[in-house]
Amino acid sequence: MLPRLLTPKWVLLHLLVVALFVATLFLGYWQLSKAEDGGGAVNWSYALQWPLYGIMGVWFYLKMMRLEINRDPDEDEPGNAVVLYQRPRIDTTGDPEMQAYNAYLAELNERALRGRSDDRAR
């Protein structure tokens, strides 16, 4: 579990989150000093908002790390998702015009599938 969070990508993310958290604390302190020097209500509000932004960012990051730890490591493997294709059924009961239309749609579908398989073979 823990080695997943020590890959180069995650280590860079850890460092970035720490740097941004320290920056938000610094910006909050800077706004507080501006507010104490006679700044208005905007400086007081930013003095509270910047640390809250940092705490919120760390909270989201911890949540993201928890999701990574609990994630199945094999879910990223190719071929893991099974996609089944079911050919459309042709309605053989009822209106003859509807039967002809459904047969026409099935023929178009077959042509499209053959076109796709030809494109993949190239």
Oligomer: single chain
In DSSP terms (H or I, runs of 4 or more residues), the helix count works out at: 3
Pattern of helices and strands: HHH
Q: In this structure, how is the largest beta sheet organized?
A: none
Unreliable parts: none
Assign a percent range to the helix content.
55-70%
**What gap, in angstroms, lies between the N and C termini?**
42 Å
Q: Strand tally, please?
A: 0
**Coarse shape:** elongated
Strand content range: under 5%
Mean pLDDT: 83
**Secondary structure category:** mainly alpha
Radius of gyration: 29 Å
GO molecular function: metallopeptidase activity
Keywords: Hydrolase, Membrane, Metalloprotease, Protease, Transmembrane, Transmembrane helix
Organism: Goekera deserti
Transmembrane segments: 12-32, 44-62
Structure in words:
With 122 residues, this protein is mainly α. It has a domain at 3-75. 70% of the residues lie in helices and 0% in strands. Helix 1 runs antiparallel to helix 2. The longest helix has 30 residues, at 41-70. It starts with 7 loop residues before the first helix and ends with a helix. The model has no long low-confidence stretch (mean pLDDT 83).
